[in-house]
DNA sequence: TAAGGGATTGCCT
DNA sequence: GGCAATCCCTTAG
C-alpha cells in the first residue's frame, strides 16, 4: 500500500467552490472506521454556491445547514427524502454557505465492508439476495454514504483535515478528462453547469 | 401549529 | 420508465 497524504486545510481554503468541485475529482475519500478501512476515488461532484437557489444555504443559516457555514474542509451531512443521507465538502469562507456534494466514488479499498454496509438493510428486510456488484456500491450520493459508513450524528460538522475520515491526494497525477454538465434531481437552478464527473468512468451515477 | 416537499433509491410494470 | 417510501426541516398562516 502506497503512502497517502491527507489533503491539508490549504487545499480547501485556496480554491473557490467550482474549482474545488473539479479538484476533488481523482482524489480519494478514505474512512478508517473501527470496522476497517473503506476508500474510493471521487469521480463525480456537484457545486452548490452562495446565491444559488438550489443551495441549502440559499435563504439563511438554519439548524440543518449550519455546517455549511463552517470552515472549508468541514463535512455537511443531511437527511434526504426521509431515508437517505448525502455528504458535502464545505467550501468558501467561514460564514459563506457553499459546498461540494460528493455524488460517486470508484471503490478502491474495503469493498467487502462496503457491500456488507450497503446490503445490511436488504438482509434485514429479506428482499434482496444477490450480492451487490462493485458498481452498485458507491454510484450515487446516498449509496456512497452507506458504503463508507458515514453517519449524520457522527460526521456532520466533522473536519476532513483531522480525524479518520479524510481526502487523500491521488496516487497518480494522470489528468482525467472532466465533463461539465447540469446537476441532478433539482428544480431550482437546474440549468447551471455545476456538475462535474470523470469522462467514461463507469462508476459515475448517471451519464 | 400545520402542511408541504426534498441535492434518492430500488422495486414494480 | 414510473412511482412509492419516509422523515425532519422549513415556511406559511
Automatic annotation (TrEMBL):
InterPro entries (UniProt xref):
Formyl_transferase-like_C_sf, MPG, MPG_sf
Q: Which GO terms describe its biological process?
A: base-excision repair
Q: Which domain of life is it from?
A: Bacteria
What are the EC numbers?
3.2.2.-
Q: Which UniProt keywords apply?
A: DNA damage, DNA repair, Glycosidase, Hydrolase
Q: Which Pfam families match?
A: Pur_DNA_glyco (PF02245)
A GO molecular function held by the record: DNA binding
What is the enzyme's main class? hydrolase
The region annotated as signal peptide is none
Q: Which NCBIfam families match?
A: 3mg (TIGR00567), PRK00802.1-3 (NF002003)
Which PANTHER family does the protein's record reference? DNA-3-METHYLADENINE GLYCOSYLASE
Family the entry assigns: Belongs to the DNA glycosylase MPG family.
Return the protein name: Putative 3-methyladenine DNA glycosylase
**Source organism of the structure:** Rhabdobacter roseus
Q: What is the lineage of its organism?
A: Bacteria, Pseudomonadati, Bacteroidota, Cytophagia, Cytophagales
